[in-house]
Amino acid sequence: MNDASSISSVMSPPRRPTWHSMLWALLAVALLLGGVWAYARIKSSFPFYDTVYSPQTAAPALTGTGEDGRPFTLSDLRGQTVAVFFGFLHCSNICPTTLASLERVRQALPEKDRGNFRSVLVTLDPARDEVPRLREYVTYFSSSARGVFIPEPQLTQTAAAWGVGYQKADVESAATYQINHTTGVYLIDCEGQQRVVWDYTQITDTNRVAADVREVMR
Q: Which SUPFAM superfamilies does the record cross-reference, listed alphabetically (predicted)?
């Protein structure tokens, strides 16, 4: 009995310590994650700060009345790099901050590229944001900025195509209210392709946003 037990213990392979197995498991996970990271770097060598559209798709239609009172369509700006933002003139914080940030980004670009970068504000408040007021508002932030007025129900359809949601909030009267809305800024390249979208929390980082714009302009 004792001899059989001794023989069995001799013939059985020694067990690996638990920590040894865990080490190999962690190493395998690290190698896997490293491979994923390397693949992502190969597929997109530039580390964009924002969310990248992949694959690239044509920007949705954007048609209305420009801040100059003339018909506006996004395709009129083909050949330029355009940052599209949906907001409203009575916005107390997000909208003015976004437009001011986009102008700082434009100023941070090389001088030769500044004329080819343009910000566009699409108003989500056609009931109050009349075209003359829209022009006064956008040009306050930049002489090159554009404004777009779209009446309802076309505005609802346009916003949905861009993935923008909005609704009235804090309604006190027919003329006194706020609008809750999507705060993304959509970057469109010179060929009319959607490239990236920045969140409101990102748009104030001038250097990183400008780096994204320069890369898209290349």
A: Thioredoxin-like
